[in-house]
Structures are given as C-alpha cells and as structure tokens.
Design brief:
By secondary structure, the protein is an all-alpha fold. The protein contains 7 helices and no strands. About 2% of the residues have low confidence.
Length: 223
Amino acid sequence: MSGTARSGSEPADSLAGLPSPLEAVDDMRTTAKWIIGAAAAVGAVLLGGAPLAAVGKVHGAASTAMAFGGLILGLAGVGWAIWQTSDALIPPATTLAVLELPQLAGLLAQISADPAAFYGPFGASVAELRSACGRFETAAARIAILLAQETDPVRQRVLSRGHADALANAAQARARLNWLLAFVHAWRVRDQLRRARIQAFAGAAVAAVGAVLFITAASRGAA
C-alpha cells in the first residue's frame, strides 16, 4: 500500500465527486427495453391485418410456401431480437474475480494503465485493495481495545487520533472496493447490451428478408 492514505490532517481520499457507475446501468436497461418494444412493434406489423388479408391473394404451392416461409422467417427474426435483448435485462452476478474474464480485457487494460484512478492510494491491484480494507479494519479494532483500557489522557488522545485515522482509511478503502465492483458490474451490463444490439440488428435483417419474401409472394398472386 502506498503511503498516501489518510493520516492526521491529510485530506481523505474521497469518491464523493464521482457518479455511481450503477446510474448508467438503469439507462442501458432502458435502452434494452426500447429495443424490445421496437421489435415487438415490428412483430405486431407482421401479424397485423394487412399481411393476413394478403394471404388470400397468394395462389399456387410455390407462392404459398414463399409467403408462409417469409412470415415465419420474419417472426423468427423478431423473436430472436427480443430473446437476445431480454438477456441484457437480467443482472449478471458480479464479483471482482470476473476482471480476469476475456470479455473484460479492455477494462482490465484501462485499470492497469492508471491503477490510482481505480484503487486510490490503496495499492495497484484488487488483492492489495482488499488487504488494505482488512488491515485498517483490524487496526481500528485493536486500537479500540487499547483505548478502552488506557487511562492516561495523553495516550488516550494519541490512540483516539490513530483510531479515527484507521476508521477513515478503512472506510475509504471499502468505498473504493464497492465503487470498483459497481464499475465492473456496469461494464458487464454494457457488454451484454452491446452484444444484444448486434443480435437485434441481425434479427431485424432476418425479419426484413422474411417481409420481402411475403410481399413478393403476395404480389405474384395479385398479378
């Protein structure tokens, strides 16, 4: 651990000015819900009155197969988009161990490039940050025991100051740990949404192909 943790009158390391990464999670899930709503609207159009009315204009086995194949393909594309995007609404179980996953390699690279921005003055790794939490919490507990047994006023003041510093450092380290966990969680949700957008686009493309096939079959029958 570096020597820049709070001691005496030194300023405390604070996360008060930083927004919570969890705020972005709500916005990303709102985006996922919008994608689902848009896909559902497309499905409603595919199953609306116009396509069903056009079924009567389809004649011949080939056109009929093309029409129903296109309709099934279109609905499959919509269903795929909704299914894949729904996964982004399921909160992933997140621990700091997931930083080792390949999907988070980009985040891990950012942390490695500037560890102080994520760990503060409490080391350069998750292990060191956790160690700092335990060390300061243990120190605060031991000083509290000594303070309860001390009768000398001068030593009581010294112990009280040390106890306050240990508590402050423990709280700062714990806040860093919780903030980092929230950041990792938000990054995972971001990754889920990014993959869901790609899958939704693929589903929309399939639905468009299905719609074209259906319209083509209906046009042949009308001609």
